[in-house]
Amino acid sequence: MTNTNDFRRYSYQSDTAYLIDSFDFSRGSQAPKLRPQDKPAEKLKVRENQQLKSRSELKREQKNAFAKAVRIAAVAVISLVMIALVLHSMALKNELTREITAKQTSIANAESEYISLQSELNSLVSMSMIDKYAVEELGMTKMRSNQIQYMNVDAYKTARQKAAEKKKAAAEKKAQQQATKTKGHN
Question: Would the pTM of this model clear 0.85, i.e. be above it?
Answer without folding.
Answer: no
